[in-house]
Amino acid sequence: MGQPVATDASSSAVSSTIPEKIGKYVIINEVGRGSTGNVYLSHDPYYRRDVAIKVYNIGNDEDDAERTRVTRKMFFNEAHMVGMLQHPNILPIYDAGEEDGKYYVVTEHVHGARTLAKYCKPDNLLRIDDVVEIIYKCAKALHYAHSRGVIHRDVKPSNIMLTTDNDVRIIDFGIALVTDSDVSQIQGIAGSPSYMSPEQVQSYALTNRSDLYSLGAVMYELLTGFRPFRANNLSKLLHQIVYATPQPILRYRDDIGEELENVVAVALQKDPDKRYANGLALAAELTRVYQQLRERYDSLDNNEHFNLLRQLRFFHDFSHSEIWEVLRASDWREYKEGEEIVREGEIDDRFYIIVAGQVSVSNHGREVGRLGPGECFGESSYVSGAKTLASISARKPLTLLRVSATLMEQVSSSCQLRFNKVFLRSMIHRLQLASQPLEDTAPHDVHPAG
Predict the structure, then answer these.
(1) Which whole number is the average pLDDT over 158-168?
(2) Residue of 154, 211, 348, 349 with catalytic role
(3) pTM for this structure?
(4) Torsion on CA atoms 124, 32, 171, 218, rounded to nearest 10
(5) Is the pLDDT of residue 13 over 50?
(6) Between β-strands 359-363 and 366-371, what pairing exists: parallel, antiparallel or unpaired?
(7) What is the DSSP letter of 390?
Protein backbone atom coordinates (compact mmCIF):
# COMPACT_ATOMS: atom_id res chain seq x y z
CA MET A 1 0.00 0.00 0.00
CA GLY A 2 1.29 3.49 -0.91
CA GLN A 3 2.39 5.97 1.68
CA PRO A 4 -0.36 8.27 2.98
CA VAL A 5 -0.36 12.04 2.75
CA ALA A 6 0.46 13.19 6.27
CA THR A 7 -1.34 16.25 7.60
CA ASP A 8 -1.05 17.02 11.32
CA ALA A 9 0.50 13.72 12.29
CA SER A 10 3.57 11.78 11.34
CA SER A 11 3.42 9.49 8.34
CA SER A 12 3.51 6.38 10.52
CA ALA A 13 0.71 7.67 12.73
CA VAL A 14 -1.52 8.42 9.78
CA SER A 15 -0.83 5.13 8.02
CA SER A 16 -2.20 3.20 11.00
CA THR A 17 -5.59 4.85 10.54
CA ILE A 18 -5.89 4.09 6.83
CA PRO A 19 -8.05 1.05 6.12
CA GLU A 20 -6.67 -1.52 3.70
CA LYS A 21 -10.03 -1.90 1.99
CA ILE A 22 -13.43 -0.21 1.92
CA GLY A 23 -16.18 -2.26 0.37
CA LYS A 24 -14.71 -3.77 -2.79
CA TYR A 25 -12.11 -1.01 -3.09
CA VAL A 26 -8.47 -1.54 -2.08
CA ILE A 27 -7.09 1.69 -0.60
CA ILE A 28 -3.90 3.04 -2.19
CA ASN A 29 -3.39 6.28 -0.32
CA GLU A 30 -5.00 9.03 1.70
CA VAL A 31 -5.42 12.14 -0.44
CA GLY A 32 -7.39 14.53 1.75
CA ARG A 33 -9.04 15.28 5.07
CA GLY A 34 -11.99 17.49 5.89
CA SER A 35 -14.44 18.26 8.65
CA THR A 36 -16.94 15.68 7.41
CA GLY A 37 -14.58 12.88 6.44
CA ASN A 38 -11.40 11.56 4.87
CA VAL A 39 -10.75 10.93 1.18
CA TYR A 40 -8.77 7.98 -0.14
CA LEU A 41 -7.43 7.00 -3.53
CA SER A 42 -8.35 3.60 -4.94
CA HIS A 43 -8.58 1.88 -8.31
CA ASP A 44 -11.69 0.26 -9.73
CA PRO A 45 -10.35 -2.78 -11.62
CA TYR A 46 -13.70 -3.52 -13.28
CA TYR A 47 -13.97 -0.10 -14.97
CA ARG A 48 -10.18 0.40 -15.03
CA ARG A 49 -10.27 3.86 -13.49
CA ASP A 50 -8.91 5.58 -10.40
CA VAL A 51 -11.57 6.63 -7.91
CA ALA A 52 -11.76 8.80 -4.81
CA ILE A 53 -13.52 7.34 -1.78
CA LYS A 54 -14.89 9.76 0.77
CA VAL A 55 -15.51 8.13 4.13
CA TYR A 56 -17.84 10.18 6.32
CA ASN A 57 -16.98 10.77 9.97
CA ILE A 58 -20.22 9.50 11.45
CA GLY A 59 -19.73 8.65 15.10
CA ASN A 60 -22.01 7.88 18.01
CA ASP A 61 -20.95 10.74 20.25
CA GLU A 62 -24.07 11.76 22.20
CA ASP A 63 -22.49 15.16 22.99
CA ASP A 64 -22.36 15.94 19.27
CA ALA A 65 -25.59 14.30 18.18
CA GLU A 66 -26.62 17.17 15.91
CA ARG A 67 -23.33 17.08 14.00
CA THR A 68 -23.65 13.32 13.60
CA ARG A 69 -27.22 13.70 12.33
CA VAL A 70 -26.25 16.31 9.73
CA THR A 71 -23.23 14.32 8.55
CA ARG A 72 -25.41 11.24 8.15
CA LYS A 73 -27.89 13.31 6.12
CA MET A 74 -25.06 14.55 3.91
CA PHE A 75 -23.98 11.00 3.19
CA PHE A 76 -27.47 9.85 2.24
CA ASN A 77 -27.86 12.98 0.14
CA GLU A 78 -24.81 12.16 -1.98
CA ALA A 79 -25.64 8.45 -2.04
CA HIS A 80 -29.10 9.31 -3.39
CA MET A 81 -27.45 10.95 -6.41
CA VAL A 82 -25.31 8.01 -7.55
CA GLY A 83 -25.40 8.16 -11.35
CA MET A 84 -27.96 10.97 -11.26
CA LEU A 85 -25.84 13.88 -12.52
CA GLN A 86 -23.84 13.05 -15.63
CA HIS A 87 -22.33 16.28 -16.90
CA PRO A 88 -18.69 16.93 -17.94
CA ASN A 89 -18.40 19.78 -15.40
CA ILE A 90 -19.91 17.94 -12.41
CA LEU A 91 -17.82 15.41 -10.51
CA PRO A 92 -19.61 12.09 -11.09
CA ILE A 93 -20.69 9.92 -8.15
CA TYR A 94 -20.15 6.27 -9.05
CA ASP A 95 -21.08 4.33 -5.95
CA ALA A 96 -21.99 4.54 -2.27
CA GLY A 97 -22.26 2.09 0.58
CA GLU A 98 -21.89 1.21 4.25
CA GLU A 99 -19.54 -1.34 5.75
CA ASP A 100 -18.78 -1.96 9.40
CA GLY A 101 -20.20 1.42 10.35
CA LYS A 102 -18.23 3.25 7.64
CA TYR A 103 -20.35 5.27 5.22
CA TYR A 104 -18.60 6.01 1.95
CA VAL A 105 -19.18 7.64 -1.43
CA VAL A 106 -17.12 6.80 -4.54
CA THR A 107 -16.42 9.52 -7.11
CA GLU A 108 -14.12 10.24 -10.02
CA HIS A 109 -10.54 10.94 -8.93
CA VAL A 110 -9.07 13.86 -10.88
CA HIS A 111 -5.27 13.70 -10.75
CA GLY A 112 -3.54 17.01 -10.16
CA ALA A 113 -6.76 18.98 -9.71
CA ARG A 114 -6.95 21.97 -7.38
CA THR A 115 -9.85 24.08 -6.19
CA LEU A 116 -10.53 27.69 -7.09
CA ALA A 117 -9.70 28.70 -3.50
CA LYS A 118 -6.09 28.89 -4.69
CA TYR A 119 -6.96 31.79 -7.00
CA CYS A 120 -8.87 34.00 -4.57
CA LYS A 121 -5.97 36.15 -3.39
CA PRO A 122 -5.35 39.62 -4.84
CA ASP A 123 -1.76 38.70 -5.75
CA ASN A 124 -2.63 35.38 -7.40
CA LEU A 125 -5.68 36.00 -9.59
CA LEU A 126 -6.48 34.20 -12.81
CA ARG A 127 -6.73 36.16 -16.03
CA ILE A 128 -10.13 37.76 -16.53
CA ASP A 129 -10.98 35.69 -19.61
CA ASP A 130 -10.07 32.50 -17.72
CA VAL A 131 -12.44 33.48 -14.90
CA VAL A 132 -15.23 34.14 -17.39
CA GLU A 133 -14.68 30.75 -19.04
CA ILE A 134 -14.70 28.94 -15.67
CA ILE A 135 -17.90 30.64 -14.49
CA TYR A 136 -19.50 29.95 -17.91
CA LYS A 137 -18.85 26.20 -17.46
CA CYS A 138 -20.17 26.33 -13.89
CA ALA A 139 -23.34 28.13 -15.02
CA LYS A 140 -23.99 25.47 -17.67
CA ALA A 141 -23.34 22.68 -15.16
CA LEU A 142 -25.65 24.22 -12.55
CA HIS A 143 -28.37 24.65 -15.18
CA TYR A 144 -28.08 20.94 -15.92
CA ALA A 145 -28.36 20.07 -12.21
CA HIS A 146 -31.30 22.45 -11.74
CA SER A 147 -33.12 20.90 -14.71
CA ARG A 148 -32.94 17.59 -12.84
CA GLY A 149 -34.33 19.05 -9.64
CA VAL A 150 -31.03 19.52 -7.78
CA ILE A 151 -30.04 22.79 -6.07
CA HIS A 152 -26.44 22.63 -4.87
CA ARG A 153 -26.75 25.09 -1.93
CA ASP A 154 -22.99 25.24 -1.30
CA VAL A 155 -21.39 26.78 -4.39
CA LYS A 156 -18.04 28.25 -3.32
CA PRO A 157 -14.42 28.29 -4.57
CA SER A 158 -13.40 25.20 -2.61
CA ASN A 159 -16.26 23.24 -4.20
CA ILE A 160 -15.12 23.98 -7.75
CA MET A 161 -12.11 22.08 -9.04
CA LEU A 162 -9.81 22.91 -11.95
CA THR A 163 -8.25 19.95 -13.74
CA THR A 164 -4.75 20.00 -15.19
CA ASP A 165 -6.18 20.71 -18.64
CA ASN A 166 -8.20 23.72 -17.40
CA ASP A 167 -11.52 21.93 -17.22
CA VAL A 168 -13.99 22.40 -14.35
CA ARG A 169 -15.70 20.03 -11.90
CA ILE A 170 -18.35 21.14 -9.40
CA ILE A 171 -18.06 18.92 -6.34
CA ASP A 172 -19.76 18.14 -3.00
CA PHE A 173 -23.53 17.84 -3.29
CA GLY A 174 -23.75 16.84 0.37
CA ILE A 175 -26.30 19.52 1.34
CA ALA A 176 -28.07 19.79 -2.01
CA LEU A 177 -31.84 20.05 -2.22
CA VAL A 178 -33.34 17.34 -4.41
CA THR A 179 -36.91 17.63 -5.66
CA ASP A 180 -39.29 15.01 -4.21
CA SER A 181 -36.65 13.68 -1.84
CA ASP A 182 -37.03 13.73 1.95
CA VAL A 183 -33.40 12.66 2.33
CA SER A 184 -32.04 16.12 1.60
CA GLN A 185 -34.03 18.16 4.07
CA ILE A 186 -31.25 19.45 6.33
CA GLN A 187 -32.95 22.00 8.54
CA GLY A 188 -31.63 25.46 9.42
CA ILE A 189 -28.96 27.46 7.64
CA ALA A 190 -26.86 25.08 5.57
CA GLY A 191 -23.95 26.19 3.44
CA SER A 192 -20.96 28.52 3.62
CA PRO A 193 -22.14 31.94 4.90
CA SER A 194 -19.93 34.15 2.70
CA TYR A 195 -21.49 32.74 -0.48
CA MET A 196 -25.11 32.34 0.66
CA SER A 197 -27.92 34.13 -1.10
CA PRO A 198 -30.12 36.51 0.93
CA GLU A 199 -32.99 34.02 0.82
CA GLN A 200 -30.72 31.21 1.99
CA VAL A 201 -29.53 33.32 4.92
CA GLN A 202 -33.14 33.95 5.91
CA SER A 203 -34.13 30.26 5.53
CA TYR A 204 -36.66 31.07 2.81
CA ALA A 205 -37.61 28.58 0.12
CA LEU A 206 -34.82 28.26 -2.41
CA THR A 207 -34.88 28.13 -6.19
CA ASN A 208 -32.16 27.66 -8.80
CA ARG A 209 -31.45 31.41 -8.57
CA SER A 210 -29.92 30.94 -5.12
CA ASP A 211 -27.10 28.91 -6.67
CA LEU A 212 -26.63 31.61 -9.32
CA TYR A 213 -26.20 34.20 -6.57
CA SER A 214 -23.52 32.01 -4.95
CA LEU A 215 -21.81 31.61 -8.32
CA GLY A 216 -21.89 35.41 -8.68
CA ALA A 217 -20.16 35.70 -5.29
CA VAL A 218 -17.48 33.25 -6.47
CA MET A 219 -16.99 35.28 -9.66
CA TYR A 220 -16.66 38.50 -7.62
CA GLU A 221 -13.92 36.92 -5.49
CA LEU A 222 -12.05 35.41 -8.44
CA LEU A 223 -11.97 38.81 -10.14
CA THR A 224 -10.98 40.89 -7.10
CA GLY A 225 -9.41 38.59 -4.52
CA PHE A 226 -12.06 39.71 -2.00
CA ARG A 227 -15.45 38.31 -1.02
CA PRO A 228 -18.46 40.53 -1.72
CA PHE A 229 -19.16 40.85 2.00
CA ARG A 230 -16.76 40.62 4.94
CA ALA A 231 -17.39 41.12 8.65
CA ASN A 232 -15.76 40.23 11.95
CA ASN A 233 -18.71 38.13 13.12
CA LEU A 234 -21.42 35.99 11.56
CA SER A 235 -24.32 38.24 12.56
CA LYS A 236 -22.85 41.26 10.79
CA LEU A 237 -21.99 39.19 7.73
CA LEU A 238 -25.52 37.84 7.37
CA HIS A 239 -26.92 41.35 7.82
CA GLN A 240 -24.71 42.62 4.99
CA ILE A 241 -25.79 39.81 2.68
CA VAL A 242 -29.45 40.71 3.20
CA TYR A 243 -29.19 44.52 3.18
CA ALA A 244 -25.80 45.84 1.98
CA THR A 245 -24.43 46.42 -1.52
CA PRO A 246 -20.96 45.04 -2.31
CA GLN A 247 -18.17 47.38 -3.31
CA PRO A 248 -18.00 47.88 -7.10
CA ILE A 249 -15.46 45.57 -8.69
CA LEU A 250 -13.87 48.55 -10.43
CA ARG A 251 -12.76 49.80 -7.03
CA TYR A 252 -10.35 46.89 -6.80
CA ARG A 253 -9.12 46.82 -10.40
CA ASP A 254 -9.54 49.05 -13.41
CA ASP A 255 -9.07 46.48 -16.16
CA ILE A 256 -12.56 45.00 -15.85
CA GLY A 257 -15.05 46.27 -18.37
CA GLU A 258 -18.48 47.61 -17.53
CA GLU A 259 -20.14 44.63 -19.22
CA LEU A 260 -18.55 42.13 -16.83
CA GLU A 261 -19.24 44.39 -13.84
CA ASN A 262 -22.93 44.34 -14.84
CA VAL A 263 -22.98 40.55 -15.14
CA VAL A 264 -21.71 40.17 -11.57
CA ALA A 265 -24.13 42.86 -10.31
CA VAL A 266 -27.14 41.07 -11.83
CA ALA A 267 -26.06 37.72 -10.35
CA LEU A 268 -25.77 39.35 -6.89
CA GLN A 269 -29.18 41.04 -6.88
CA LYS A 270 -30.97 40.72 -3.52
CA ASP A 271 -34.30 39.92 -5.20
CA PRO A 272 -34.12 36.49 -6.89
CA ASP A 273 -36.52 37.69 -9.62
CA LYS A 274 -33.98 40.33 -10.67
CA ARG A 275 -31.19 37.79 -11.19
CA TYR A 276 -30.66 35.69 -14.28
CA ALA A 277 -33.58 33.34 -14.82
CA ASN A 278 -31.33 30.31 -15.13
CA GLY A 279 -27.77 29.19 -15.73
CA LEU A 280 -28.19 29.32 -19.52
CA ALA A 281 -29.07 33.01 -19.37
CA LEU A 282 -25.97 33.72 -17.29
CA ALA A 283 -23.85 31.62 -19.66
CA ALA A 284 -25.16 33.56 -22.67
CA GLU A 285 -24.12 36.88 -21.10
CA LEU A 286 -20.71 35.49 -20.26
CA THR A 287 -20.28 34.33 -23.87
CA ARG A 288 -20.69 37.90 -25.09
CA VAL A 289 -18.24 39.21 -22.49
CA TYR A 290 -15.74 36.48 -23.35
CA GLN A 291 -15.77 37.38 -27.05
CA GLN A 292 -15.01 41.01 -26.17
CA LEU A 293 -12.17 39.95 -23.86
CA ARG A 294 -10.60 37.70 -26.47
CA GLU A 295 -10.60 40.57 -28.95
CA ARG A 296 -8.85 42.73 -26.37
CA TYR A 297 -6.25 40.09 -25.50
CA ASP A 298 -5.53 39.55 -29.20
CA SER A 299 -4.80 43.25 -29.56
CA LEU A 300 -1.65 44.82 -30.98
CA ASP A 301 0.00 45.08 -27.53
CA ASN A 302 -0.18 41.34 -26.93
CA ASN A 303 1.06 40.56 -30.42
CA GLU A 304 4.02 42.87 -29.81
CA HIS A 305 4.74 41.09 -26.53
CA PHE A 306 4.62 37.75 -28.32
CA ASN A 307 7.03 38.95 -30.99
CA LEU A 308 9.49 40.22 -28.38
CA LEU A 309 9.43 36.93 -26.47
CA ARG A 310 9.90 34.89 -29.61
CA GLN A 311 13.24 36.66 -30.19
CA LEU A 312 14.59 35.84 -26.71
CA ARG A 313 16.95 32.90 -26.40
CA PHE A 314 14.86 31.58 -23.50
CA PHE A 315 11.95 30.89 -25.87
CA HIS A 316 13.87 29.53 -28.87
CA ASP A 317 12.64 25.96 -28.25
CA PHE A 318 9.03 26.95 -27.53
CA SER A 319 6.24 26.53 -30.08
CA HIS A 320 4.07 29.56 -30.84
CA SER A 321 1.18 28.12 -28.84
CA GLU A 322 3.46 27.47 -25.84
CA ILE A 323 4.72 31.06 -25.87
CA TRP A 324 1.09 32.24 -25.81
CA GLU A 325 0.44 29.91 -22.87
CA VAL A 326 3.32 31.42 -20.90
CA LEU A 327 2.02 34.91 -21.73
CA ARG A 328 -1.39 33.95 -20.35
CA ALA A 329 0.21 32.89 -17.07
CA SER A 330 2.23 36.11 -16.81
CA ASP A 331 2.13 39.85 -16.52
CA TRP A 332 4.34 42.46 -18.19
CA ARG A 333 6.14 44.86 -15.85
CA GLU A 334 8.36 47.90 -16.34
CA TYR A 335 10.91 48.92 -13.64
CA LYS A 336 12.92 52.09 -13.19
CA GLU A 337 16.67 52.09 -12.63
CA GLY A 338 17.45 51.12 -9.03
CA GLU A 339 13.97 49.72 -8.34
CA GLU A 340 13.98 46.55 -6.23
CA ILE A 341 12.28 43.47 -7.73
CA VAL A 342 13.13 40.66 -5.30
CA ARG A 343 14.36 41.06 -1.74
CA GLU A 344 16.70 38.49 -0.19
CA GLY A 345 15.03 36.29 2.43
CA GLU A 346 11.46 36.85 1.24
CA ILE A 347 9.09 34.26 -0.21
CA ASP A 348 8.20 34.75 -3.87
CA ASP A 349 6.18 32.40 -6.09
CA ARG A 350 7.08 33.97 -9.44
CA PHE A 351 9.58 33.24 -12.16
CA TYR A 352 11.13 36.22 -13.94
CA ILE A 353 12.37 36.50 -17.51
CA ILE A 354 14.24 39.64 -18.59
CA VAL A 355 12.82 41.03 -21.81
CA ALA A 356 14.93 44.22 -21.96
CA GLY A 357 17.42 45.96 -19.66
CA GLN A 358 19.68 44.56 -16.95
CA VAL A 359 19.39 43.55 -13.29
CA SER A 360 21.89 43.50 -10.47
CA VAL A 361 22.11 40.42 -8.23
CA SER A 362 23.20 41.07 -4.62
CA ASN A 363 23.87 38.80 -1.67
CA HIS A 364 24.27 40.25 1.83
CA GLY A 365 24.51 43.72 0.29
CA ARG A 366 27.31 42.83 -2.16
CA GLU A 367 26.73 42.73 -5.91
CA VAL A 368 27.63 39.27 -7.18
CA GLY A 369 26.29 39.30 -10.73
CA ARG A 370 24.29 40.93 -13.48
CA LEU A 371 21.68 39.45 -15.79
CA GLY A 372 20.48 40.70 -19.17
CA PRO A 373 17.82 40.05 -21.84
CA GLY A 374 16.76 36.41 -22.17
CA GLU A 375 18.01 35.57 -18.68
CA CYS A 376 15.74 34.34 -15.89
CA PHE A 377 15.65 34.24 -12.11
CA GLY A 378 13.26 33.10 -9.37
CA GLU A 379 14.42 29.53 -8.70
CA SER A 380 12.87 29.63 -5.21
CA SER A 381 9.46 29.32 -6.91
CA TYR A 382 10.18 25.63 -7.40
CA VAL A 383 9.97 25.03 -3.64
CA SER A 384 6.79 26.04 -1.83
CA GLY A 385 7.58 28.45 1.01
CA ALA A 386 11.27 28.74 0.07
CA LYS A 387 12.96 32.08 0.66
CA THR A 388 14.89 33.90 -2.04
CA LEU A 389 18.67 33.66 -1.82
CA ALA A 390 19.54 37.06 -3.30
CA SER A 391 18.19 40.54 -3.89
CA ILE A 392 17.52 41.60 -7.47
CA SER A 393 17.14 45.20 -8.60
CA ALA A 394 16.98 47.03 -11.92
CA ARG A 395 20.46 48.20 -12.93
CA LYS A 396 19.00 49.88 -16.02
CA PRO A 397 15.40 50.61 -17.09
CA LEU A 398 13.93 47.14 -17.19
CA THR A 399 11.13 45.13 -18.81
CA LEU A 400 10.26 41.84 -17.11
CA LEU A 401 7.87 39.00 -17.80
CA ARG A 402 6.63 37.88 -14.38
CA VAL A 403 5.39 34.30 -14.58
CA SER A 404 3.09 33.07 -11.80
CA ALA A 405 4.21 29.65 -10.57
CA THR A 406 0.61 28.90 -9.58
CA LEU A 407 -0.83 29.87 -12.96
CA MET A 408 1.85 27.83 -14.74
CA GLU A 409 0.26 24.79 -13.13
CA GLN A 410 -2.73 25.41 -15.39
CA VAL A 411 -0.89 25.44 -18.73
CA SER A 412 -0.47 22.31 -20.84
CA SER A 413 1.91 19.59 -19.67
CA SER A 414 4.11 20.08 -22.73
CA CYS A 415 4.45 23.79 -21.98
CA GLN A 416 5.28 23.11 -18.32
CA LEU A 417 7.95 20.59 -19.27
CA ARG A 418 9.45 22.96 -21.82
CA PHE A 419 9.51 25.86 -19.37
CA ASN A 420 11.01 23.80 -16.56
CA LYS A 421 13.70 22.37 -18.84
CA VAL A 422 14.83 25.76 -20.14
CA PHE A 423 14.59 27.47 -16.74
CA LEU A 424 16.55 24.77 -14.93
CA ARG A 425 19.11 24.59 -17.72
CA SER A 426 19.73 28.31 -17.26
CA MET A 427 20.02 27.87 -13.48
CA ILE A 428 22.56 25.05 -13.88
CA HIS A 429 24.59 27.08 -16.34
CA ARG A 430 24.64 29.99 -13.90
CA LEU A 431 25.82 27.73 -11.04
CA GLN A 432 28.60 26.42 -13.24
CA LEU A 433 29.76 29.97 -13.97
CA ALA A 434 29.52 30.91 -10.29
CA SER A 435 31.75 27.98 -9.31
CA GLN A 436 34.53 29.13 -11.62
CA PRO A 437 37.31 31.22 -9.95
CA LEU A 438 37.11 34.91 -10.75
CA GLU A 439 40.13 36.93 -11.75
CA ASP A 440 39.01 39.84 -9.57
CA THR A 441 36.25 40.71 -7.14
CA ALA A 442 34.16 42.71 -9.63
CA PRO A 443 30.63 41.51 -10.28
CA HIS A 444 30.36 39.31 -13.35
CA ASP A 445 27.80 39.15 -16.11
CA VAL A 446 25.97 35.86 -16.34
CA HIS A 447 25.00 34.93 -19.85
CA PRO A 448 22.10 32.71 -20.91
CA ALA A 449 22.56 29.05 -21.54
CA GLY A 450 23.01 28.13 -25.15
Answers:
(1) 89
(2) 154
(3) 0.73
(4) -30
(5) no
(6) antiparallel
(7) S
